[in-house]
């Protein structure tokens, strides 16, 4: 199955997350057998598109699309000297997802079957609360609405507004009390029936992170996520030793080599790769296997577009050390509508196993003709 063309599809209408607007880039890999594989990455399509078309396409065109591991290694070699921990790896991730989609279509099976089969009949999920950040103003109402929909875990980031004010360099006891109030109210209302993870987006210095962690211990959040920037894993080890609460990290680490250091220093209790960033399905599966050798659970980061949502569901269906899969109710109920036919919503708090063959999802045909979409293509001569 020879790769004959590669297309990038850039949707300029983005979504808004904690750090501002985010846009998605989709990659279509065409073959001489008429099958097309679909991949995705984000949040910087112009940079990622340049890598796909200028650096990766020469490696891929004319090659056998079923040789996924060989193609991954050759793409990695092609970008190694320019520095791979950024747009380069996000571009490889999108291509890798598309190659797995092709492999599943060629075999007539869902991707999770090619990975080794399903380890569960449905996928436990938690909700990352991009619902207008109502956890800051109506935390109990938000938690209750999720609980009534069958979702028993959620993620909030109430310390971010303070971090923006102080640049993450100091925090007062009163600010800690105020930021903890929503979590406290949810626990008072729902008790252990609702697990609450707290996200920090890497905004804090070590001293502040230790102060916050100590203050949150009586409230027993599910985990503390990315309290520090991800570049100094020794500092994370020091943070882990200073609190009884488990740390979760990090979506911003890429490839098995960056996760190796994290696993070896034992700072994290939950491992969180993002398939669109870490190197694709191939690399996420290897990271999960590495984590399993340390008896650590995996919680894939899943805050991107609809193709990441499907790819994450395939990985989550397969790996035996899954703890829980992230999803965003606002995304699958609103943002994905009109982009794909079936946004794979949670049903009674669980994500169903995604269908096949391949990923089991395609862009809606009308996406390609939208005025806010730019399509670029390179082909065999």
Structure notes:
It is a single chain. With 381 residues, this protein is of the alpha/beta class. It has 2 domains: 3-108 and 362-379, Enolase-like, domain 1 (2-Layer Sandwich), CATH 3.30.390.10; 113-352, TIM Barrel (Alpha-Beta Barrel). Helix content is 41%, strand content 18%. Helix 1 packs across helix 2, helix 2 (68-79) runs antiparallel to helix 3 and helix 3 (87-107) crosses helix 12. The longest helix has 21 residues, at 87-107. The chain is globular, with a radius of gyration of 20 Å. The model has no long low-confidence stretch (mean pLDDT 95).
H/I helix tally: 14
Q: What's the main sheet like?
A: 8 strands, mixed
Work out the number of β strands.
12
CA-CA gap between termini: 17 Å
| Helical percentage | 40-55%
**CATH top level label of the largest domain:** Alpha Beta
Query: Which sequence of SSEs, written as H and E, runs from N to C?
Result: EEEHHHHEHEHHEHEHEHEHHHEHEE
How many structural domains are formed by the residues?
A: 2
Strand fraction equals 15-25%
């Amino acid at each position: 199955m020879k790769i004959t063309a590669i297309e990038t599809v850039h949707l300029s209408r983005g979504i808004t997350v904690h750090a501002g607007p985010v846009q998605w880039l989709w990659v279509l890999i065409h073959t001489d057998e008429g099958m097309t594989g679909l991949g995705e990455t984000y949040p910087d399509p112009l940079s990622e598109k340049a890598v796909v078309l200028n650096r990766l396409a020469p490696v891929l065109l004319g090659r056998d699309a079923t040789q996924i591991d060989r193609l991954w290694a050759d793409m990695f070699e092609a970008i190694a000297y320019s520095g791979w921990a950024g747009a380069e790896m996000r571009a490889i991730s999108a291509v890798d997802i598309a190659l797995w989609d092709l492999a599943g279509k060629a075999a007539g099976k869902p991707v999770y079957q090619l990975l080794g089969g399903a380890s569960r009949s449905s996928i436990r999920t938690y909700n990352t609360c991009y619902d207008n950040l109502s956890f800051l103003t109506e935390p109990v109402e938000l938690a209750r609405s999720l609980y009534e929909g069958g979702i028993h875990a959620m993620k909030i980031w109430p310390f971010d507004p303070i971090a923006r004010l102080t640049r993450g360099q100091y925090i007062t006891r009163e600010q800690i009390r105020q930021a903890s109030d929503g979590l406290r109210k949810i626990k008072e209302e729902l008790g252990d029936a609702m697990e609450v993870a707290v996200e920090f987006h890497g905004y804090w210095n070590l001293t502040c992170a230790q102060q916050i962690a100590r203050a949150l211990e009586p409230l027993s959040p599910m985990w503390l996520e990315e309290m520090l920037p991800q570049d100094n894993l020794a500092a994370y080890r020091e943070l882990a030793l200073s609190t009884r609460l488990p740390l979760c990290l990090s979506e911003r680490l890429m490839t098995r080599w960056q996760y190796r250091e994290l696993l070896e220093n034992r700072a994290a209790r939950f491992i969180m790769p993002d398939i669109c960033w870490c190197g694709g399905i191939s690399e996420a599966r290897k990271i999960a296997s590495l984590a399993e050798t340390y008896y650590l659970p995996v919680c894939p980061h899943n805050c991107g577009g609809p193709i990441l949502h499907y790819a994450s569901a395939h990985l989550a269906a397969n790996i035996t050390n899954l703890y829980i899969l992230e999803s965003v109710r606002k995304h699958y109920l609103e943002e994905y509508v009109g982009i794909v036919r079936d946004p794979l919503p949670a049903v009674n708090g669980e994500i169903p196993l995604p269908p096949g063959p391949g990923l089991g999802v395609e862009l809606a045909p009308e996406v390609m003709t939208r005025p806010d979409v730019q399509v670029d293509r390179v082909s065999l001569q």
